[in-house]
Amino acid sequence: MVTEPAPTKLTDTPLEPIGPLDTKVVQCLPKMTEGCLVPVYMDIQQAFVPAEIVSIREINGVHEFYIHYVNYNRRLDEWVTVDRMNLKELTPPSSSSSSSNNISHEIPVTSLPRTVQPSTTTTAAAAAASGAAELPLGNTTTFFLSDDADSLNSDLSRAATLPSLTDPLPATATPIAPTIARGNGNAHHSGAHSITKVKNINMIHLGRYFIKPWYFSPYPEEFTASSVVYICEFCLKYCKDVEALKRHRTKCTLFHPPGNEIYRNGTISFFEIDGRKNKSYAHNICLLAKLFLDHKTLYYDTDPFMFYILTEFDAQGFHIVGYFSKDKESSEDYNLSCILTLPPYQKKGYGHFMIEFSYTLSKLEGKIGTPEKPLSDLGLLSYRRYWSEAILQTLLKHKPKDNETDYPSLSINDLSEMTAIKKEDVLAALQNLNIIRYHQGSYVLSIPKDLFDSYQDKRRLRVDAKNLFWTPRVTTKSTNQFQSK
Ligand code: ACO
Ligand code: ZN
Catalytic residues (predicted)? Predict the structure, then answer.
């Protein structure tokens, strides 16, 4: 289920301070602690929304509150000051949540300056009910570099020419210090520690972009103080400032992710990286990915995973667009562990393209695949879209000819084998398309005539298997090591 409600009807709430709180009201108010619930004015909704105080800090004598809007995705969490809160509706933490917060700050409400006009509170339920075409991404501002940073880029760039796909590529990046966090980002989110609920990196700089992170990621503590963490777009090493990145780039010779280029079509390439052979890159990509993935925590072992890095080529090199990771061996038929399209590239079809690529690999392996669960809200939307399109395209191929009236009999199994999509996902997609009925003990498809028209293939990015140079890995019984076929 999508957990995030869509933007609801906007209210024209004036955001006006009403001065110090009425003393009678103040006496009734509980202390402000982590775990308290309070309506907070949410910019994208232009209304008050119930929120939970996750953390409290004091900067130059001003209290700031890290709040989570109840029933909204955590990427919308933010630091706010008290003037955005309706303190008259402050409620203390429930006993279960307060017990986990007993070391938290306590702020007497009387010490706070003022609050804002209470107004129509947008309840999460109302927001959820509104139904939306697009999920709010929140403060995910991305923008091109300023002149300064552009000159950094040209400093760093050397004219790169597109090498032939068969040209040998360096196997590993310039050695860099190992990071403290390791993993593929594929473990389920524990949510145990409130520290991991607070975004710790303010901004990253990657290639041509500044990107605002969505979630916590366990970068070393000293990086959390930087206003911007500068990341080498080729080896993903992270630096505290631009000077450190410049120094790094004088040593780092990469102009593409380390590993083998296994796919190229025009300017689009995939590089394959073994989490065992290139640990530093694997660790770095997990840290980067965690900034945009909430429901996963990091594993400390990247060895069991392969990483597929999607890049776009220009004169300065192969720029990372996104990636997905994949278990080398999965007893649960997982063909994709984590997927990320970097925010500046989202909603342009790259996610769909990577998902199609993951199923193309499964087809070559002769396997049926499914993504590792749980899916994020955006992951679920993307997969639903992919499954629906893949199944409709398969049905289209089997559409009756003009002189025929009946569809050839196709089972869920047939559809699963033809698409490499696991049966459960085929069934979910057919239900989502609303074209399957259970009738007298069997499933029957009933396809409205105009359905195919709405699913014509208009995608700019499609996987062209003839541009893929890849052989599945096999396990050798003697060593239990993976080797290329
Ligand atoms: N709002 C509504 N629908 C959306 C949105 C959105 N913000 N983003 C994607 N979709 C849906 C659309 O139906 C779209 O189909 P369309 O192209 O016909 O409109 C479909 O998803 C695919 O969109 P793409 O542009 O191909 O996907 P994108 O490149 O944006 O990548 C992804 C999707 C990878 C999920 C991206 O949003 C992302 O990286 N999110 C953060 C990390 C994440 O949540 N990853 C998935 C975790 S689950 C797992 O790893 C197994
Ligand atoms: Zn580098």
Answer: 372
DSSP assignment of 139-184 equals S--EEE--HHHHHHHHHH--------TTS---SSPSP-PPPS--S-
Of 372, 389, 404, 417, which one is the catalytic site residue? 372
| Residue 254 Cα to ligand 2 middle (Å) | 6
Which residue range(s) make up the domain with 80?
29-84
Q: Which atom of ligand 1 is nearest to the CA of 294?
A: 44
Q: Is the CB of 185 under 6 A from ligand 1?
A: no
Which tens digits make up the pLDDT trace of 348-377? 999 999 999 999 999 999 999 999 999 999
CATH number for the domain including 56? 2.30.30.140
Each residue of 415-455: pLDDT tens digit? 999 999 999 999 999 988 888 887 777 777 877 777 777 76
What average pLDDT does the segment 198-203 reach?
92
CATH of residue 455's domain is: 3.40.630.30
**Residue 23 in domain:** no
The mean pLDDT value for 24-39 works out to 72
Q: List all residues 6 or more positions away from 434 whose beta carbon is below 8 Å from its beta carbon.
A: none
Q: Is residue 203 in a domain? A: no
Q: What does the block give as tokens for 76?
A: 């919308």
Number of domains in the chain: 2
From 338, 342, 345, 346, mutation site for ligand 1 pocket: most ligand atoms within 8 A of C-beta: 346
